[in-house]
Amino acid sequence: MQPRDLSDHVAYEAGRGIEEVARELGRDPSDFVKLASNENPHGPSPAAAVAIRETASSVSSYPKAVHADLRSAVADRWEVTDEQVWLANGGDGAIDYLHRATVVPGDTVLVPDPGFAYYGMSSRFHHGGVREYGLEREDDFAQDAETVLEAYDGDRLVFLTSPHNPSGSTIPLADVETLADATDDETLIVVDEAYGEFADRDSAVALIEGRDGFEARDDVAVLRTFSKAYGLAGVRLGYAVVPDEWSDAYARVNTPFAASELACRAGLAAIDDDEHVERTVGTARESRAYMRENVDAHVWESEGNFVLVDVGDGSVVADEMQERGVIVRDCSSFGLPGCIRITCGTDEETERAVATLNDVLATLD
Ligand code: PMP
């Protein structure tokens, strides 16, 4: 017996941690700083760390079935009903749930190129096809309704990433509305706001709920995560906000105990820790401005907690930087072999990354 034919499936390339890199290079982990996976340089919210410790003694019990208290806290944050919040094992889990709730064999899903790999992976798991719309580097990866509509062909799901990974570009809400109006009734527009806290733009939840001059609608969903601004990537907690009409589907598609009790306790503590989020967002804004001003190469304007840099050869530059103790993301796997992506770090980490990169660029000249 063998697995089914998985030749169309591409494995997710997760960034390697400091321990792994240090072991491979035979070096001390303290030599390294990792700015490769858009993690929070300030760590988790301190309140969440306390909540995780306090939950330790009760993990022999199953989590509460619907995570009612966290669902309510997230619902309050967005002023939606509890049923409109689909908690999941990270934003990735929420992407899976939206596929389970929509895609049947033969359907297609439209995703950005370059873009976050898991959209396409999830579609394939659910026997869907993957189609792409291009975001052009010459246009600074600009996102608008027209670019997506040119590629659209009755796809069941259309993924928008705002801010976009890896470029940091965003899409105006008016364009999301135009897209939702122009696509079929059976198409759901998914606005992935994994990096939403770092951007100046309002959330597309306004479109779902009919706020800020928009009409309420049943064909837009929003993805959010606790991995970035809340610093909880390791506990795996994310969610989708869906239209009211979609509420019933969650119970039918979610995995039993969609999020762990540790994740839920941590999330509940973190969601009230505005100070930690504000500090994190402030650091990211300063870091990306510093990188744009001081890197000796083109740095795209970004609304995320990372910047994309045009370095000529991303693989060579990332390797050289890693040798010098700074781990960044080579963007070859995004189809951008000339680029690296650098996560916004603390002041000290950002300054070290910029000095190291400029050093490497000077030696390659
Ligand atoms: N969307 C985008 C655009 C991402 O970059 C990521 C993480 N890299 C996710 C979703 C999922 O994040 P998580 O599963 O950690 O919530």
Describe what you observe in this structure.
Its EC number is 2.6.1.9. Pathway: Amino-acid biosynthesis; L-histidine biosynthesis; L-histidine from 5-phospho-alpha-D-ribose 1-diphosphate: step 7/9. It catalyses: L-histidinol phosphate + 2-oxoglutarate = 3-(imidazol-4-yl)-2-oxopropyl phosphate + L-glutamate. There is one protein chain. The protein is an alpha/beta fold and about 375 residues long. The chain folds into two domains: about 20-45 and about 275-365, Aspartate Aminotransferase, domain 1, CATH 3.90.1150; about 45-270, Type I PLP-dependent aspartate aminotransferase-like (Major domain) (Aspartate Aminotransferase, domain 2), CATH 3.40.640.10. Helices cover about 40% and strands about 15% of the residues. The strands form three sheets. The chain has a seven-stranded mixed beta sheet, with helices on both faces. A hairpin with an 8-residue loop joins strand 12 and strand 13. Helix 2 (about 45-55) packs antiparallel against helix 10, helix 6 (about 145-150) runs parallel beside helix 7 (about 175-180) and helix 11 (about 275-295) runs parallel beside helix 13 (about 345-365). The longest helix is centred in the C-terminal third of the chain and has 21 residues, at about 275-295. The mean pLDDT is about 95. It binds 4'-deoxy-4'-aminopyridoxal-5'-phosphate (PMP). 4'-deoxy-4'-aminopyridoxal-5'-phosphate binds near residues 165 and 194.
Roughly what percent helix? 25-40%
Reported for the largest beta sheet, the result is: 7 strands, mixed
Catalogue the unreliable spans: none
Shape: globular
Helix tally?
13
List each distinct ligand once: 4'-deoxy-4'-aminopyridoxal-5'-phosphate
Quaternary state of the chains: single chain
Query: How is the CATH topology of the largest domain named?
Result: Aspartate Aminotransferase, domain 2
The CATH homologous superfamily name of the largest domain equals Type I PLP-dependent aspartate aminotransferase-like (Major domain)
Secondary-structure element series: HEHHEHEHEHEHEHEEHHHEEHEEEH
For the residues shown, what is the average pLDDT?
96
Domain module count: 2
Q: In terms of structural class, how would the helical and strand content be classed?
A: alpha/beta
Cα separation of the termini: 53 Å
Please report which band the strand proportion falls in: under 5%, 5-15%, 15-25%, 25-35%, 35-45% or over 45%.
5-15%
InterPro entries: Aminotrans_II_pyridoxalP_BS, Aminotransferase_I/II_large, HisP_aminotrans, HistidinolP_aminotransfase, PyrdxlP-dep_Trfase, PyrdxlP-dep_Trfase_major, PyrdxlP-dep_Trfase_small
Modified residues (N6-(pyridoxal phosphate)lysine): 228
Enzyme class: transferase
Family: Belongs to the class-II pyridoxal-phosphate-dependent aminotransferase family. Histidinol-phosphate aminotransferase subfamily.
